[in-house]
Write a structure and sequence with these properties.
This protein is mainly beta. It has 2 domains: 37 residues, no CATH class; 80 residues, OB fold (Dihydrolipoamide Acetyltransferase, E2P) (Beta Barrel). It contains no helices and 12 strands. It has a 5-stranded antiparallel beta sheet with strand order 4-5-12-10-7, with no helix packed on it. A 4-stranded antiparallel beta sheet has the order 9-8-6-11, with no helix packed on it. A hairpin with a 5-residue loop joins strand 4 and strand 5. The protein is elongated. It starts with a strand and ends with a strand. About 11% of the residues have low confidence.
Length: 123
């Protein structure tokens, strides 16, 4: 079994890879004991205050954009679906974090995004 330490977005993870007969048979990922204080899961979901451009909807985790459900100029209400993001083989619906009009869409279908990346700006 091979062990690695990997840093993703400032968070460090321990990764163990087990090989059997030349093929990978098991991969396990765990955060070190000191990591939980640095990674609150709910923080990225909250709307980041925009400087002068509106409310920013950010990605809560790294993944690939499967669908953009809105267009610039669309009116949205808090909780409306704006993006579908595939992460860890699961589809995650990203919702509007405020009422308003879609001012800017920062991503397109099949884009890869990181945690915290701005996806949509609502004004």
């Amino acid at each position: 079994m091979k062990e690695y330490k990997i840093k993703v977005n400032g968070n460090e993870y321990n990764v163990s890879v087990e090989e059997v007969g030349g093929t990978i048979s098991n991969v396990s990922v765990s955060a070190p004991t000191a990591a939980p204080a640095a990674a609150p899961a709910a923080a990225p979901k909250a709307a980041a205050p925009a400087s002068a451009g509106g409310t920013k909807v950010t990605s809560p985790l790294p993944g690939v954009i499967l669908d953009v459900a809105v267009k610039e100029g669309d009116a949205v209400k808090k909780g409306d679906k704006v993006i579908v993001l595939e992460a860890m083989k699961m589809e995650n619906v990203i919702e509007a974090t405020a009422d308003g009009v879609v001012k800017e869409i920062k991503v397109k279908k099949s884009d890869s995004v990181l945690e915290g990346d701005v996806l949509v700006v609502i004004g």
